[in-house]
């Protein structure tokens, strides 16, 4: 899910938080890795403005995810530094509208017609990128997967994930192992 990959550009490592989008070069690399989903070419190069706008959008989306997992705890990465809910909601909605989509009918010579969505009018890269990211966030938050959205409770983990089965507690096997190891350590340390 694009929105979860987007908000996971902030993640924990052993040495602290790592922000994949910490600079323009990071945004360029991440944009190229997700070019198809964002409507970019393989030669995409981020600008300073696009980078700032995308990072601002990421914080707004993280604020909405934090509200969606409530009353459970939000991600510890930035729970104390997130923008307000109303401001975040407005920003995500405005970003989604910045590059509206229109249906287009494609009808190959040897096949059935297929409907695709294309940008309605010419838009720059920043509105297209932000609109794709905002639409992905809206689809998650307004869809049935929202009920399964969780912040990973593992020590030092700052990721959000969609719970895929009833016994899933963590975002990954690695986080589950770290959580069990930490629990085991604390149980045996107090003896």
TrEMBL record:
Q: Which InterPro entries match?
A: ABATE, ABATE_dom_sf, Znf_CGNR
Which Pfam family would be a valid example here?
A: ABATE
Q: Which domain of life is it from?
A: Bacteria
**Start and end residues of each Zinc finger CGNR domain:** 149-187
Task: Please state what the protein is called.
Answer: Zinc finger CGNR domain-containing protein
Per the UniProt record, the source organism is: Streptosporangium minutum
